[in-house]
Design brief:
By secondary structure, the protein is α/β, with parallel strands linked by helices. It binds iron/sulfur cluster.
Length: 432
């Protein structure tokens, strides 16, 4: 069968869609990289983290049906988990798979008869058991690899729908994930990004996140290990020691979602730290690990967020060693505790005003961080060439581009001299 996979949402969804591709190819299916009339099945790995994310998924589904009206849709992911019945009504050939069924995609596809119309839902309780994911990679893969190591979350922050859609925190079997990383290393992967919902709480057979990093360090082909977003207070001290050690493959980079600079709002969000703890931790990390890349997520417009609360967030970002902030507008999610605070919603015009101010500050901080690295040499892992040149990231997450290279730098880890700050990226030249 010819199968097209469209992924919405987070890095974890991207990691899962990658496993779909590998499993489907190993099962002899043909993967279409664009949606066209030759496609038999379109898989939508959906997202429901915000209202906007939901509507983007539905828009994609409508576009796919317009291109190929007889396509069979498989809708999986968080929208399928949240609004299963609504997803069933989106087409007359649709299989809706809850998050529990994601890694059983092949078995579900084998039951399909594409000559017939279908309206089927398969959704089971998500459970608490640790899990395994078969690794089916059979051909070279030359990109950064998002390795799923963990699933679900027990934190229940008051604004977040994820624990309701991805279930309780559970970890991937240690040997299974190490084998997956090793296979990808042999097939050309140089950087592994440890992915999950709450990776800091990883625990399997008395192995924690530091043990995962130690094991991946032993894989000769893997040259870099990167943490995806990780919660404050969940990072084992041993992980920071690994990060500070220049001989360890764990790159000097942390993305810590802090969400607000106001203690009053952090309490309403049911976050697990105070802003003083966040400030002290960031300052300590920046002192321990020189040149570390530090980023965060901030939510603007949480119910009841006053001008004073917002000012705390602004000064927190301003005075922190953070180099950038992903700024999100609060999105009310039915079923969350914060959804009950509907009498204190912030007007979208005000949310937009505050978001704009924070994004401008984030740009300034990134620009100032880049300025410090002009003239410095850094190793960059390059991606496919784009219209400017070969782009890639340094270990501390500086976006670098080499414009004129006589060689193909794709998936090469190359020493680069950073020569110009272009705001969103730094221009570099290869150090021969
Ligand atoms: S830590 Fe909080 S924000 Fe993150 S997934 Fe868990 S509940 Fe959601």
């Amino acid at each position: 069968m010819r199968i097209y996979i469209h992924t919405h949402g987070c890095r974890l969804n991207a990691a899962e869609s990658r496993t779909f591709v590998e499993a489907l190819e190993a099962a002899g299916h043909d993967i279409a990289h664009t949606m066209d009339q030759s496609v038999d099945i379109a898989v939508i790995n959906s997202c429901a983290v915000t209202e906007q994310a939901e509507s983007k998924c539905k828009q994609t589904i409508r576009q796919i049906i317009r291109i190929q009206p007889n396509v069979t849709l498989i809708i999986t992911g968080c929208l399928a988990e949240k609004n299963s019945q609504e997803c069933l009504k989106l087409h007359d050939r649709v299989l809706v798979l809850g998050n529990s069924e994601k890694h059983r995609m092949i078995a579900h596809i084998d039951t399909l008869d594409l000559r017939k119309k279908i309206s089927k839902l398969v959704k089971n309780p998500l459970g608490k058991a640790n899990f395994e994911i078969p690794c089916a990679l059979r051909r070279p893969y030359c990109e950064r690899y998002n390795l799923k190591i963990q699933e679900g979350c027990d934190f229940f922050c008051s604004y977040c729908i994820i624990p309701h859609l991805r279930g309780r925190a559970r970890s991937r079997n240690f040997e299974n994930l190490v084998k997956d990383a090793a296979i990808h290393g042999k097939q050309g992967v140089k950087e592994i990004v440890l992915s999950g919902v709450n990776i800091g709480v990883y625990e399997n057979n008395a192995k924690n996140l530091a043990d995962v990093i130690a094991a991946l360090n032993e894989i000769p082909e893997i040259q870099r290990i990167r943490l995806s977003s990780i919660e404050l207070k969940t990072i084992p001290d041993a992980v920071l020691e690994q990060m500070a050690n220049d001989n360890n493959k764990l790159v000097k980079y942390l993305h810590l979602p802090i969400q607000s600079g106001s203690d009053r709002i952090l309490q309403l969000m049911r976050r697990h730290y105070t802003i003083a703890e966040a400030r002290d931790y960031l300052a300590w990390v920046a002192k321990q690990i020189s040149g570390i890349g530090l980023g965060t997520d901030l939510i603007v417009g949480f119910p009841g967020e006053s001008e004073e609360d917002f000012t705390y967030t602004l000064s927190f970002l301003q005075n922190s060693p953070l180099q950038y902030a992903h700024v999100f507008s609060y999105s009310q999610r039915e079923g969350t505790v914060a959804a009950l605070m509907r009498d204190r919603l912030i007007a979208s015009k005000e949310i937009n005003r505050r978001s704009k101010i924070l994004r401008t500050l984030s740009h300034e901080k990134r620009y100032n961080f880049y300025e410090k690295f002009i003239g410095f040499e850094q190793d960059v892992l390059f991606e496919n060439k784009n219209r400017i040149g070969f782009p890639g990231y340094t270990e501390n997450y500086i976006r670098a581009i080499v414009e004129n290279s006589s060689k193909d730098l794709t998936n090469q880890l190359v020493r680069v001299k950073l020569i110009q700050n272009c705001g969103d990226y730094m221009r570099g030249e290869v150090v021969h």
